[in-house]
Each structure stands twice: as C-alpha cells, then as structure tokens.
Design goal:
Blueprint lengths: L5 E10 L5 E10 L9 E5 L5 H17 L6 H15 L23 E8 L5 H14 L3 E7 L2 E9 H13 L1 E4 L5 E3 L3 E8 L10 E5 L3 H10 L3 H7 L6
Parallel strand pairs: 5-10
Antiparallel strand pairs: 1-2, 2-3, 4-6, 4-9, 5-6, 7-8
Helix pairs in contact: 1-2, 5-6
GO cellular component, one term: nucleus
Protein name: RWD domain-containing protein 3
Pfam family, one: RWD
Length: 239
C-alpha cells in the first residue's frame, strides 16, 4: 500500500557444493521509502538448516547495503544464485521455522529480538503481571499482544537477557491448569529469534496491547518494520 510498501515472494532452485538441488524461498518487504531504506528480507528452505538460512539472509543484507538508494532486488537475486553454494558450506538439513532457541542460534552480541506464541492464559491477570515484571527486571522492551485467541510476545534486548527470559518462561509456575493449580508454561512456541536489523524499529517500553482485528495487529508490525515477520508467522496461527 502507499503507507506500508509491498511484500512479495521469490522462489529459486540452485545447486549446493554437493550438486544437490536447493529450493530457496525469499520474502522481500519493500518499505515506502525503498530503495532509500533497506528491504526486510526473510530466507527459508526445506533443504537448509535454520543457521544456514540466517547466514544467507545476513549476506543478502550486506549486499543490499552496497546498493542503497538504487533498485536492488534483481541484483540480490542474481547474487544469491551465484554465491549460495559458498555461503552454505555445512551439510544440508531441514530448515524449520518453529525451532528451539538454541538450535542454530548465533552467540553474537548486540540487540536481539524474540517472537513467541502462547496457546492460552487461564490466570490472565497474574500471568500478565508476571511477564511485565520479567521484562522490567531483564530490561526487555516489546509487546504482549492479544488478538482474539491469539497471544503473541515480541521482545527486544540483550541476547543474554532474552535467554534468561526464556528460562523463566519455561521453568516458572506462571499459570494455572484446568484444576486451577499452579503450573509451568508447556504450550509456548518460539516462532523466531534474530538479531535486530537496521530496518527494525526499537521499542522503548514493554506494553500490553489488545487488537480487535488482524488488520490492526498487522499495522503494529508494519510500523515497527516487521511486516515480513508478520507475514511469515501470524496468518498461519488462524488456521
């Protein structure tokens, strides 16, 4: 749209170092001010590990910076076709979007982003208060988002603090079961974990927000430069 830019997918088949076919799925979100602003890029492939997918994405963003202020998508596609086999030097394996935090994760310093999906909250008021305290104690910013039955947590902060948050989330008795007894969170999915890119907005606080429509939720992501993240994960949660 005129205010949020456009998003499109490109699928290309290439060969790796072992001459095996690799189907690479590229998702580009071009913001309104593109090409003065870098596109948001997502990389996925059933033949690659998540770490390899992240490597390809990082290399594409490096190349994109060289073409800033000029149309670049075609150049980026050509570049990845020529260089993919040299980026993915490890043996190929399945690349899963819904991975655990540790699998294929980088240990680089800097500000990171964590995107989580919760199945439900039975003791909502207590649960929300606990998450707000954890975010405050660990100096994490972001959003706890409710839209119908969908519950999402988007966090930004130091890598070590995000890891500590996940430990708390998975080991603390934060909710109650069907018998109203305190229980640990067992129905949580790590949708995405990545280092924050230049096109991603930085949240200044941790806020709890309710959305009445999917369009409202989508606009929140787009305003933060996270349109690709939304397109990859959120619509499938409605199925």
């Amino acid at each position: 749209s005129e205010t949020h830019g456009i998003t499109f997918r490109i699928q290309i088949t290439m060969k790796d170092l072992l001459d095996t076919d690799v189907l690479l799925k590229l998702l580009f979100h071009l913001p309104v001010n593109y090409p003065s602003i870098l596109p948001d890029i997502s990389v996925n492939s059933d033949q690659l590990t998540r770490a390899q997918c992240m490597d390809v994405k990082d290399k594409l963003l490096e190349q994109a910076k060289k073409h800033l202020s000029e149309p670049m998508v075609h150049e980026l596609v050509l570049w990845v076709q020529q260089h993919l086999k040299y980026i993915i030097r490890q043996p190929t394996a399945v690349c899963s979007e819904k991975t655990t935090l540790s699998r294929g994760a980088s240990t680089e310093d800097g500000i990171w982003m964590l995107f989580l999906h919760l199945d439900h909250m039975r003791a909502k008021a207590k649960y929300v208060k606990t998450l707000e305290k954890w975010a405050s104690d660990l100096r994490l910013t972001g959003r706890l988002m409710f839209m119908g039955k969908i519950i999402l947590i988007l966090l930004q902060g130091d890598r070590s603090n995000i890891k500590e948050y996940l430990i708390l989330q998975k080991t603390s008795k934060v909710d109650v079961d069907s018998s109203r007894k305190k229980c640990k969170e067992k129905m949580i999915s790590v949708l995405c974990e990545t280092k924050i890119q230049p096109q991603h907005a930085r949240f200044q606080t941790f806020e709890v927000k309710d959305y009445s429509t999917m369009d409202e939720l989508q606009k929140e992501f787009e305003a933060a430069g996270l349109a690709t993240l939304f397109a990859e994960f959120v619509p499938s949660l409605l199925k």
